[in-house]
Structures are given as C-alpha cells and as structure tokens.
Specification:
This protein is of the alpha+beta class. Helices cover 30% and strands 23% of the residues. Helix 9 packs antiparallel against helix 11 and helix 15 runs antiparallel to helix 16. Keywords: Signal. Its main location: periplasm.
C-alpha cells in the first residue's frame, strides 16, 4: 500500500539550491522525473572502480542498525544494509527493496514478496526465514533501539522461502515505510549469532558494500560486494568514511583533494565552498531534518509542563535560524516542516518568542528565582555556537543551562540510555514515514524518549489513527492532532529545519540528495 507524499526533487544544476517551500510543494511526480532525466542526461556512462573518500562528521554509535540510535549512523549503514522497502529520494514514497511487492490481504496482515536469489555478505540466503529472524530480533531483543518502530507487529510467519506474513496487533499503514529505515535493514542471522555483541562493530548485511574495518574516531572502510543482486552496482571499489568531527577541517580536506566529499555541513561551510567556483560542486537542498531540544520529562524540573512551555516561549526560533543557520533554515514548531503534506499550517506560530510569558510560567511553577538545568550537546565548534545561542535566550528568562559537551555517540549514550541530564540538542533527521518521528521521540518505547515517559492517552489514540488511516486525508487529520498535542504538552522544543549541504569534487557523479537529509552513496561513481 503506497501512501502518497508531496514531491520534491534535486536540481540538475551543479550548485543545487531551492527554497524549502518551493521544494516541498513543487507539483507532481512528473517534475521529479523530469529533473532526474535532466541530471542523468548530463552524466557520463558510469565508470567502475575507485574508492570514494568522504569526510564523516560523526563516529558511529554502532554499525548494527538494531542497537544503534544516532541518525548520523545512516550514511554508513545504507551501503552495508539493504532495506526491505526503499524510498524515492524526492518524495519519500515507498519503492521496492529486498521486498519487490507487498499487500494487505486484510487490515492486520502485511505480506511481503521477497527478491529472489539475494545473499548476505557471508553467503547465507536473505530469505523469509532471515526476515523473520531479523524482525523478531528488532521487536524483542533487550538491546533493540527499534522496538518502538514495530509496536504494531505481533508475529512474523514464513509462508514460503520468498514470502513472509507480518501479523499486526492493529492496522498499520505506516509499516512499509517503517521497513525503509533501521527496522527494515536486514542482517545475516548467522553473523549475529556468531559474533554476539561484537556484531555492533562487525556487521554483515546484504547491501552493495561489505564492511571492511572500523577504527574508532578515525575511519570506517567498506569494500565492494562482488555478488550484489543488482549487477549494475556498485560502481565503486569501496567507500572510506574518514571521521573528521570539525566541519571546517572536513571541508578543507575536500578542497585539498584528500577526500572526494563532505556531508552534513553547516551554512557557514557552504559560504566558503560557494567561493571555490568550479573546484567543487555544492549541493544544498531542503530537508525534513531539524534541530530540536529533547527533554527528559521524568526528571524535575522538566517533569512540569509549565517549565517545558517556558523553554518553548523563551526560545527565539527566528533569531536561532539567523544566527546558527545564516537564515537558510526554516523556524520549526513541530517535527513536520511548513509545506509538508502531513503538517498543519495553523500551528506555524503556536509558540512565539515571549520572554514575559516564559517568566510567568516559571513563577507559576514555583521557580520565581529561576531554575538550573543540565544541558547536553556535541563538542564541535558549530554545535557549541548553537548551544550558546540557546543558553543566552534561556538565561534571559531565568533558566540557567549548564552545558556538558562531548562526542555525538557519547552524549547520546549518556542522555538517552544512562538518562543523565535534563535536555539535549540534537539534529533530528526525520524518517520516511511521518508517523515515526512522533513514535520514536514521544512514544513510551521511543529511543529518543530519554525518560520513557508515556505520552498522553489522547496522543496514543492520535498515533494509532495516523498509522491506521488508509487514505492521506485521514492521516493528515491524525497528524494535525499529534502535532497540536505535542505542542500543548511541550514534549520537545523544535528550533529550525536545516538544508542538506554536501560538497564534492567535480569527479563525484550520480549523487542524488534526499528529503531526509541523510546522504546515500550507493549509486555514486567517480568520473575518469
């Protein structure tokens, strides 16, 4: 079952930059196809060989899609793990992946027909038994970070070697696109059993590239899968992710020819790259990724909704966008951006910058002298600048935020897993289906719900409605309820949606950005 998405497509120009609203509401799949044909026409015939060298801004949290949690992992996971369902980069509409077809014979059964002849990197078959083993592990393993994704999945039944039935506890029309993310990344069951916890560092998937090695905070190396089911791929002999957490250093490595590309850059690096002329190709496209403040609502004082609302009124989103994103982003209220099909436009000004109201809410909550909170975040220079903006805005209403900074993986572990700290700033990179952000950030078992605080009952009902409605208008009504409830209960503080900015040397070809802001390099080749 395909849920339509509002199209968005990449520009055919070497320097790609369109305004968010133009991209998110641009009309029709025909436009996307036209742009894709234009891009393809300008490309030479793909060349085999070469190793793509990339400056990666984060060390992975894990290379096991089930146990990791950081959105920044995806760029390394995508080449290693094919997903059961894929998605169109411009529209996020579901497309065949390891499953070539799917259907709902009844509202509580989803049947997947699998691609024949696919094998994992260790030679074992990627068949229905493997799918069952993966999904059972994802929904039941104690260490799984994707249990929340699969809450509707009650059991998995092997029907034939190439067919599997997913039996659901309730109807779930979001499930195909849920299987386009971590929950649908298929691992070798044999490797999982044999390697135990070491599988976090030595993954075995069915994607176009095999795992080579991972040296913490240094490099992740992938090599070509010679037996990949798509005989046209991969073009490259390998991909090397050189971990360079300082974005300026990462960009300089591209300008110096040490790497072919750098991704997840900030507007500050885009300005520098734009001055380089033909030396580099700059891709800058809107995404559904946004910076947000995530709360541990189990800990005082953030267990009081009045305090969480005070933070939302204290933050000046427009000023954050100007200072942190040079005005290239879009101020955010919820995790769904203006112009996106599932977003309720009436909520665009739900929280205005109102320091007086923030101070009044703190007094009402019994904090006339203000409050102290422990604020977690990343230690790189750009993140520190973003933290300083928020810290100063909060200070003006009497909220004293003490910053603890470290690596992305360490801060995630300490805040989300060990439940240290009161608030963390993260970049939420979105998911193929809009139901997932609400499930994963606010759901009781969501991996970004640090305190594992159950959402309000009416929100649980709206979440069910968003995942059971069979038509887009019905889903849109449910998302409007979810958005409003998240705002009323101040479950997070959304700041601004960011552009996806990547910089490449001119020999990098066939790269297509996607609406998630998580680059995929599976189709890339290096021109001679």
């Amino acid at each position: 079952m395909s849920i339509p998405q509002v199209p968005h497509g990449p520009s055919a120009d070497p320097v790609i930059h369109l305004r968010r609203r133009e991209m998110l509401v641009a009309g029709g799949a025909a436009l996307l196809m036209g742009l894709s044909r234009g891009r393809a026409a300008a490309q030479p015939v793909p060349r085999k060989g070469g190793i793509l060298k990339l400056a990666a801004p984060f060390n992975p949290s894990s290379l096991d899609p089930v146990t990791g949690g950081a959105g920044s992992d995806h760029m390394v996971l995508y080449p290693v793990f094919d997903t059961l369902v894929s998605f169109d980069p411009g529209t996020l509409a579901p497309q065949p992946g390891l499953a070539v077809a799917w259907n709902y014979p009844d509202p509580r059964t989803l049947i997947l027909t699998l691609r024949a002849g696919v094998r994992f990197h260790d030679g074992t078959p990627m068949d229905a038994a493997a799918v069952k083993a993966n999904l059972d592990r994802a929904r039941m393993d104690d260490r799984s970070s994707v249990k929340g994704d699969l809450q509707s999945l009650a059991s998995v039944q092997v029907l034939a070697p190439d067919s599997v039935a997913l039996h659901l506890s309730r109807p779930d029309t979001a499930l195909p696109l849920i299987l386009a993310d971590r929950a649908g990344m298929m691992s070798s069951p044999r490797a999982i059993t044999a390697r135990g916890r070491q599988y976090d560092r030595e993954p075995v998937g069915a994607g176009p590239f095999k795992f080579g090695r991972w040296a913490d905070n240094d490099v992740v190396e992938l090599v070509r899968n010679e037996d990949y089911w798509d005989r046209d791929l991969p073009h490259l002999d390998g991909i090397t992710f050189r971990i360079i957490t300082d974005l300026n250093t990462g960009l300089r490595s591209v300008l110096a020819g040490e790497n072919h590309g750098a991704y997840r850059l900030n507007p500050q690096q885009k300005i520098v790259a734009d001055r380089m002329g033909a030396r580099v190709v700059v891709s800058s496209t809107p995404t559904i990724a946004d910076y947000h403040l995530v709360f541990n609502s189990r800990r005082a004082p953030l267990n009081d909704v009045r305090v969480r609302r005070a933070i939302n009124y204290a933050v000046d989103r427009a000023a954050f966008n100007r200072a942190a994103l040079l005005g290239l982003g879009t101020p955010a209220q919820t995790m769904l951006p203006p112009g996106y099909w599932a977003h309720d436009e009436s909520l665009n000004d739900f929280y205005t910058h109102d320091p007086d109201r923030a101070r009044a809410l703190l007094r009402e909550a019994g904090h006339a002298e203000g409050i102290d909170i422990q604020f977690f975040g990343n230690a790189d220079q750009a993140s520190q600048q973003r933290h300083e903006i928020v810290i100063e805005q909060l200070r003006q209403v009497g909220i004293r935020a003490r910053l603890t900074a470290g690596s992305n993986a360490d801060m995630y572990q300490r805040f989300m897993i060990q439940q240290e700290g009161d608030m963390i700033m993260t970049l939420w990179t979105g998911r193929p289906d809009p139901a997932l952000p609400f499930l994963l950030v606010y759901g009781e078992n969501g991996f970004n719900n640090a305190g594992k605080v159950p959402p309000p009952p009416e929100m649980v009902a709206a979440q069910d409605e968003a995942q059971t409605a069979s038509d887009q208008p019905g889903r849109k009504r449910a998302f409007a309820k979810l958005e409003r409830l998240a705002l009323e209960h101040a479950l997070s503080c959304e700041l601004a949606f960011v552009p996806g900015i990547e910089v490449f040397t001119p020999d990098v070809r066939n790269y297509t950005p996607n609406l998630l802001g998580k680059p995929k390099f599976n189709d890339v080749f290096l021109a001679a």
